[in-house]
Amino acid sequence: MSSITSLPNYPLTNLATAEFTETTRAFKGTPTVIDFWTTKCTRCPAALDELDAMASSPTYKNVKFASICCDLCDGAREILEQTDEPRWSHVDHYFMGFEYKELAKKVLGFKSVPFIVVLNEEGEIVQMGGKKQIDFDNIPGMIKESSPRGVEETNFGDRSFVLDMDF
C-alpha cells in the first residue's frame, strides 16, 4: 500500500454541472468516500449501487459520497443518465482525464477499479483500497448508533434479535 497521506490535487469535471474543479476543492471540509471507476468495469456498477445506498442512509448523513470516472466522460454521462431518474443520485459524480488517472494510479497505488479512497474532513486519506480493504463501519463522520442500556442486538445468520438484558 502507498504511504501517501493526502489526496493529490488533480483537475476534475463535475458531471452534473460540467464545471471544472480540483480534488482538494471538491472534497474539502467533509469526510468523503470516493470511488474511482471506469465505464468498462463490470464490478463498478454494483459498487456504486452499494455506495448510493450508503449515501442515502441516515448513518452516513455527515459523509459525502463521490465517484470519479477515469476513462470516458461521455460514457460516464450515458451510464448516469440511462433512466428517467439519474443513476446513483446520492453520489456526486466527477470525471478525471486519462493523464491524471495515470498519475492517480501511480500515487495512490491502484491497479484496478473500483478503488475506494476515504478522506477525513481535513482531506487526509484514512483508508484506501478495494472494497474488501475498506472498513465501512469505521468511516469518519458516520453516526454510530448505540444500543440503549440493557439492550443488545444479536445476529444469527439472516435473523436479527434484540435481547432485553434488564430482567
Structural notes for this entry:
This is Thioredoxin domain-containing protein. InterPro entries: Thioredoxin-like_sf, Thioredoxin_domain. By secondary structure, the chain is α+β, with helices and mostly antiparallel strands. The chain is 21% helix and 27% strand. It is built from four helices and nine strands. The strands form two sheets. The chain has a seven-stranded mixed β-sheet with strand order 2-1-5-4-3-6-7. A two-stranded antiparallel sheet has the order 8-9. Helix 2 links the parallel strand 3 and strand 4. The longest helix is centred in the first third of the chain and has 12 residues. The protein is globular and about 40 Å long. The chain starts with 10 loop residues before the first strand and ends with a strand. The C terminus is likely disordered.
